[in-house]
Design brief:
The protein is 44% helix and 28% strand. It has one domain: Beta-lactamase Inhibitory Protein, Chain:B, domain 1. The protein is α+β, with helices and mostly antiparallel strands and 108 residues long. The model has no long low-confidence stretch (mean pLDDT 83). Strand 3 and strand 4 form a beta hairpin. A four-stranded antiparallel beta sheet has the order 1-2-3-4, covered by helices on one side.
């Protein structure tokens, strides 16, 4: 007698309530992927280079683009590349040869 509407059942009402929840999850997943895309792209460029140790700075920059940061280190310098969700720091000797990765971070 006191029903919300004739012909409505609990499943239909629950389904209506689930639509915004599922839609919100889909929007979250899309936004998360779009925000992390620059970092994933940068990481893939480094992966394609293979071993970084022993490579000249010019080769690395030609493949991945210019670094966002440059700092001084004992006997050389440090270059850093950063994009949303990814960060890598490489140490170079005074002649501009990569000595290896000092830091790498990728968000989950």
């Amino acid at each position: 007698m006191d029903r919300l509407c004739d012909g409505c059942d609990a499943f239909a009402v629950g389904g209506v309530l689930a639509v915004p929840f599922v839609g919100g999850l889909v929007i979250y997943a899309v936004i998360r992927a779009l925000v992390r895309a620059p970092g994933a792209s940068l990481q893939q460029k480094f992966v394609k280079l293979g071993t970084l140790k022993g490579r000249p700075e010019a080769d690395i920059v030609a493949a991945v683009g210019p670094p966002q940061s440059r700092g001084v280190a004992a006997g050389g310098y440090l270059l850093q590349w950063m994009a949303t969700g990814y960060h890598i720091a490489l140490r170079f000797d005074a002649q501009g040869i990569c000595q290896g990765v000092t830091h790498e971070f990728k968000s989950r």
